Amino acid sequence: MQIIQYLINGISIGAVYAIIALGYTMVYGIAKMLNFAHGDVIMVGAYISFCVTNYLGLPSAVSVVAAVVVCTVLGITIEGLAYKPLRGTPGLAVLITAIGVSYFLQNAAQLIWSSSPKNFTSIVTMDPISLMDGQLVITGEVLLTVCVSVAVMVGLTFFTSKTRTGKAMRAVSEDRDAAQLMGINVNRTISTTFAIGSALAAIAGVLLCSTVPTLMPTTGSMPGIRAFTAAVFGGIGSIPGAMLGGVLLGIIETFSKAYLSTQFSDAIVFSVLIIILLVKPAGLLGKQVQEKV
Amino acid sequence: MKTKMNTLLKNKNARTNALTYLVVIAAFLVTQYLYSADALSSSVKGYLIPICVYISLAVSLNLLVGICGELSLGHAGFMGIGAFSGIVIAALLKDTIPNDALRLLCAMFGGGILAGAVGFVIGVPVLRLRGDYLAIVTLAFGEILKNIIGNTYAGIDESGFHMAISTTKMPLETGGKYIINGPLGATGIQKIATFPMGFVLVLFTLFVVLNLINSKEGRAIKAVRDNRIAAESVGINVTAFRMKAFVVSAFLAGMAGALFGLNYSSVTASKFNFNTSINILVFVVLGGMGNILGSVISATLLYVLPEALRSLQDYRMILYAIVLIVVMLCTWSPKVKEYLSVIGDKLGGLRKKKEVGSHE
Amino acid sequence: MKKYLALLLACLMAVSLFTGCGSSGTTETTAAAAANETAAAGETAAADDTAAAPAIKIGLTGPLTGANSEYGLAVRGGMEIAVAEINALGGLQIEFKAEDDEADGSDKAVSAYNTLKDWGMQIFAGAVTTGSSLAIAAETVNDQIFMLTPSASAVDVAMTGSNVYQMCFTDPNQGASAAELMAEKWPDATIGVIYDSSDAYSTGIRDGFLAKAEELGLNVAVSDASFTADNKADLSTQVTQCKDAGCDLVFLPFYYTEAAQILTYANTIGYKPTFFGCDGMDGILNVEGFDTALAEGLVLMTPFDANATDDATVSFVEQFKANNDGKVPNQFAADGYDVIYALYNACVAAGIDGNTPADEACALLQEQFATMSVDGLTGTGMTWDENGMISKAPAAMVVTDGVYVPMG
């Protein structure tokens, strides 16, 4: 029974990683850049939702919409100001700019919302389901996070394979120059990708803070890095891969804490990651691309 | 002699290298002069050794990132190995080698060798990966290392040296002294790092890296970076070269780490985290990938920048972030670059005219 | 192209060097301006004290930006109130300056300290975090600058030198008192401990606690449920471990930020043991958005209670709220406040003023602190032992109806 409870705990945090990883993988797959500021957009989303609920007293559904809107605008702005001018330069240049943006967002959040932690009120009002005389508890947050991440995964897969914009994204991801020749507006496609990625970040922020209530300016950074790891784990650029990677990472983390050692759980989690990457160098569901001369 | 000098100056590589050494030596001499004239404030004196450390780290990472084209996000991990092993070595040799400078050298080489060895062990499996996958594995490695060092206890008591990686504090006999104390990190370190030694480290790093870059192997490494498959097809052993660069880079980072560790009376494992790795990477990218002098300058500048912004109090880190973004856009954005090169051409045109004029 | 890049960088370097000089210049001016301000503030009172000596310079380093900045900002806020109060009294004036050390245990901490030294600091009232304090303490020993840290609680800090003093309990002592209190109140409880294995404060208390608990024969069922600064996003496993081991008393020797998370999760899964915290727990009731009902019955050992009704506390809390957007001060702020008053009392008694060189002040202050007793917000009759560790009575509180009630 105990093991099932740990499994649920693992899936709970894993689903949060998954939804963050979906945003990472989306942006990476199409814009080919590691957006290290993604975790901080998540933090902004959570703060917006917190403010709308606690200061304006609006219902949580409104707060989620507000967070999505603000983050989408923020994502497009960041992309336009900081990333777009660097398009076509080596990936590292954009990576460093993304780090600059990440520092900026964290410090701006500290100045706006102060560094004292805030306790995020969960958007889920459902009582936890208690099974086997309270030995097994499934919280509403777990159910919601799992449902939302699955829905997002399915939605994104559908979007990229069936819609016109989605197909354009795949084309840009495949070969930017060829896509341009086919009449695809590459810049707009990439901006759209960032908009979607940032909207996902807002949702991820709300779900992250509903599961883990502490909200601080640095809330997004560690889960962001974990989720990035999860995205690579599952095969970066692959949408189902991000989902699988996130959930597996959560489960591995929880099990290593529960059965091996809490003190060394970071080392264990990352060792498992390294071993998997050595066996499958492109991640679990990643495509091994044959290099051409 | 003169002709030799001329050919030397004509060779662009040799010229850039000479310039690099010249800048570093001149900077050292000026600083040393100001130091001896007691014209430096305590804060500036305090920056000198960490600047040397970060220059070495940036130059050694540039070998990996700029020259080999491998993205590593775990450079601080090697620095950490060097720091902690250097501290332990220095503590153990306290009675054997009473001379501080000599002991510091031993600690630095010891730290470097250990970091290089770890680099080799990790490199064997990891260098099969490429690009972002290599990046994530080096990141993971840095995190593992931080976690392990944070649970390491080492100490000396009457019965000798003890070391344990464990979750509970290892007991020592009474009168024993901890060198590495779990999450407290290394404490009570005897500070033996000196600025001249920092300068020696920078020169040594430059010497090793520049020689490697300009050797036959260095050209092979660059060929591998630019087109791996083509390089392989003309018979270059790709993995061996990447390995060599990886180990050398780790070795130098370890040496720098040892100097860093021995410059403070306490050092914690959390210092060598992802953020530090990222900072070193920022130095490299901002200074220009493959541009060694650029790394030297940008490491110095970016280390001093947040300190220079202290008067802004709580706003200084946000300003640092803005400066970072703006400088990245200015140096990399094609549009801004175009604009700069127009100005540059005009300046260049003027200079050429002048030269022509002087010949007449 | 590279050439121009290099040129650009060189220009940037030159500019930054100038700004470097410039900024140190501006620091001077701001300091001078601050001195003027404080002089102006104290003018009315200082009028009758014609032989006004220059203000004494007290410095603090702490995390003012980054993940730990809430602690540094709280200490700074507390100290600023004490400085303003003292300067308004007339008499000995204090000039106060805080620098950001980013809670870094090596180079950043030392540069923050060096900046203060260049400013002319006579007494060091920091650092806020243990790591920074350890790095700086060795420097103060070299420079012979008196150091009284408000909140760095590791034993190693005070042991660095005879000039280093602490305003807070040392970690192992706090752990031991927690064990003693548990032995007295809950002798038969099954105890679980959750701690932060990457943090010196938390690990120190846990080690002290376990040693004492063994001595007293307490039943500690879970002793190594831990988290690190990197993986504290998810603390559910640790809570589940305690639940499964049947713990009815859970010891949480870490800060309220993570504790709020644990209390929330425990409530969600319907796990209701007695939670027991240390001084780092103080502040939990004031976390914005936190449902204080979850903390009902929480026991904590804190030297400071923001709801206390004595005049000193009431006025301190009021001023702190006025200066910090209505934020309620925690024990970090109170310790900071007490540090400034302890230093002020000692300076007045020893006749130290702005003209006393730092090393002389250091020797005089050591004499004072050996015999002095201080009453403050965090305790009455506080004294220091020969190692510089404080002795004050730990007060156990129970959260009842959203406020602290002294434990009977």
Explained architecture:
The complex is a heterotrimer of chains A (293), B (360) and C (408). Chain A is 72% helix and 3% strand. Chain A has helices at residues 2-31, 38-54, 60-83, 91-113, 140-162, 164-174, 176-181, 186-211, 221-234, 239-260, 265-279; strands at residues 118-119, 129-131, 136-138, 214-215. In chain B, strands 2-1-3 form a three-stranded antiparallel β-sheet, covered by helices on one side. Chain B has a domain at 2-150 and 185-274. By secondary structure, chain B is mostly helical. Chain C folds into two domains: 52-169 and 317-391, 3-Layer(aba) Sandwich (Rossmann fold), CATH 3.40.50; 172-302, Rossmann fold. Chain C contains 13 helices and 15 strands. Chain C starts with a helix and ends with a strand. Chains in contact: A-B, A-C, B-C. Chains B and C meet through helix 3, helix 12, helix 13 and helix 14 of B and helix 1, helix 4, helix 5 and helix 8 of C.
Task: List the domain count of chain C as a whole number.
Answer: 2
Largest sheet of chain A: 2 strands, antiparallel
Strand share of the residues of chain A?
A: under 5%
Strand residue content of chain C: 15-25%
Give the strand order of the largest sheet of chain A, numbering strands 1, 2, ... along the chain: 1-4
Poorly predicted regions of chain C are: 1-50
Main sheet: strands, sense, barrel of chain C: 7 strands, mixed
**Which value, in Å, is the CA radius of gyration of chain A?**
19 Å
The CATH class of the largest domain in chain C: Alpha Beta
Q: What is the architecture of the largest domain in chain C at the second tier of CATH? A: 3-Layer(aba) Sandwich
- The radius of gyration over CA of chain C amounts to 23 Å
Any chance you could write out the topology, listing elements then pairs?
The complex is a heterotrimer of chains A (293), B (360) and C (408).
Chain A: H1 2-31, H2 38-54, H3 60-83, H4 91-113, E1 118-119, E2 129-131, E3 136-138, H5 140-162, H6 164-174, H7 176-181, H8 186-211, E4 214-215, H9 221-234, H10 239-260, H11 265-279
Antiparallel strand pairs in A: 1-4, 2-3
Chain B: H1 2-10, H2 12-36, H3 42-67, H4 75-92, H5 100-126, H6 131-149, E1 152-157, E2 160-165, E3 177-181, H7 195-214, H8 216-226, H9 228-233, H10 238-261, H11 274-287, H12 292-308, H13 316-332, H14 334-359
Antiparallel strand pairs in B: 1-2, 1-3
Helix pairs in contact in B: 2-7, 3-7, 3-10, 3-11, 3-12, 4-5, 4-6, 4-10, 5-10, 7-8, 7-10, 8-10, 11-12
Chain C: H1 2-41, H2 43-46, E1 56-62, H3 69-88, E2 94-100, H4 107-119, E3 123-124, H5 130-143, E4 146-149, H6 155-159, E5 164-166, H7 171-185, E6 190-196, H8 200-216, E7 219-227, H9 236-244, E8 249-252, H10 256-268, E9 274-277, E10 299-301, H11 311-323, H12 331-350, H13 358-371, E11 374-376, E12 379-384, E13 390-391, E14 396-400, E15 403-406
Parallel strand pairs in C: 1-2, 1-3, 3-4, 4-5, 6-7, 6-8, 8-9, 9-10
Antiparallel strand pairs in C: 10-14, 11-12, 12-13, 14-15
Helix pairs in contact in C: 3-12, 4-5, 7-8, 12-13
